[in-house]
Amino acid sequence: MQNRALGDKTLHNIANIILPDELVFDVGANVGNKAQWFADRGARVVAVEPQPAMVAALQERFASNPHVTIVPKGLAEKPGHLDMHINTNTPVISTFSQQWTQGRFAGQSWDRVERIEMTTMDALVAEFGVPRYTKIDVEGFEKPVMLGLTTKIGAISLEFTSEFLQNTVDLLWYARGLGYRYFNLSIHERTDYLFPAWQSVDVIIEHLRDICAKDHIAWGDVYAV
Length: 225
Hints:
Blueprint: E1 5-6, E2 9-10, E3 23-27, H1 33-40, E4 44-48, H2 52-61, E5 68-71, E6 74-75, E7 80-86, E8 112-119, H3 121-128, E9 133-136, H4 142-147, E10 155-161, H5 165-178, E11 183-187, H6 201-214, E12 219-224
Parallel strand pairs: 3-4, 3-9, 4-5, 6-8, 9-10
Antiparallel strand pairs: 1-2, 7-8, 10-12, 11-12
C-alpha cells in the first residue's frame, strides 16, 4: 500500500485502514500532530493526554474541531491517581514509568512531578465505543496501558525500545491472548511495515530480538490486528 500524504506530513500505512467517521484512540497525544492527521481524514479522534501543559495545547488546537475529543488523563491497569515525571525541557519524554527514566534518556532531567488522574482502556471503550485503531505511545508505560484492556478491539500499535524489549514481548503475548492474530512492525519513524504481509507473534518477536541485539538503542512500533 502507498503511504497517504497530508500536507507536508506522511501517515504510516496504518492510516489506510481508517475510513471517515471511524473512531481512533490517540493515547499519548502530546500536542496532537497525529490526532490532526486522523481528524483531517474525517475520523473521530479521542486524544488521551495526561500532561497539563500538553492538554492546554490540545484544547487550544482543537477548540473548534468537532472531530477531536480530549481526555486529560493517563491510562493504566486500573483507575486512580499516579505520579507523572515531567521533563519540562523535553515534554515528549515525560513518563509514568520510573524504569523509563533509567533507559536511553537517563541523562535527562525530570524536574517536576504531577499527580494525574488515571482511567483504563476498557473505560474509554465503554464511553466512546470500539476504536478502529489505537496508537499507544506513552514512554515506557505501554504495559500498564494494555493491561487495562481486557477484550480485543481494533488495530493497535505500541512503541518498543531495545532496553525494555521484554515489556514488548510480554505485551505481544498479551495481545495474542486477547485475540489478536496478525502482527507487523516498523523501525524508527518509517511509515511502512517491515514485512509486506502480516506475521505470527512468534515471527515478530524473533525479529525484534534480532534487531535489538544488533542495535542497543533500536526503537519503533509493533502493530497487532
